[in-house]
Design goal:
This protein has five helices and seven strands. It is of the alpha+beta class. It has two domains: 80 residues, Translation Initiation Factor IF3 (2-Layer Sandwich); 107 residues, 2-Layer Sandwich (Alpha-Beta Plaits).
Amino acid sequence: MPVSLVVRRLGVSTLALIAAFVALPRPAAAQQPAPAMQPPASFPPQVVTTGTGEVRLVPDRATVLVAVETRAATAKAAAAENARIQTATLNALQELGIPRERLSTVGFDVQPDYRYDPQGQTAPKVIGYVVRNTVRAEVRPLDMLSRVLDAALASGANAISGVQFESSKAQEGQRQALANAVADARAQAESMAKAAGGSLAQLVELNSSQIYRPLPERMQMQAADVRAANAPSTPINPGELVIMATVTGRWAFK
């Protein structure tokens, strides 16, 4: 075989090998292995409890809404009659010992008085006007309340729309209820920590909410209730005021 032919054949084989090597996939030398996932930082164990505290108070004061409602053919006439009766009512309450600063007007309304067609065939007709004047009276001491109600109705007031009992020691009671709730929450936390084989460390968080009961009592009275001859005094039973506090505490556990 001639030498030149051998050289040519070797050249072709070499080129084929080089092309095959170039075609092979190459590893990505620039890529680095992903770092291992680190476990999240652990939080120290904690103890969370909710405690309640309660304080009961005897009411020593009250507020009451006294209303006078009048009707007349004109707004002017209804307002004049209303003013006459409400003035007499306020004078009667002041004579019982309620100072003027504890008597405040909380509502004054003038509305048309309509007559409606039972058959609904004609439009409502204005037959007059209604005037309503409402005064809030702060009663102190509480044993005056029965006399206040009777005097107001006897003077011409024709609606008692609400009675709310209160205590002059409410703030003191709220603070005591909170203290009782904190003590209850801590006692629970200490019991839980002991049962878990540890104890409480520093206080981490403490928050509270309060519920003050009872809500205002809605008591409706009409003038006829006390205008009967020899009518007995209006009975009043204030019961107790209950102040409740709820506290949630969070302590570190060790």
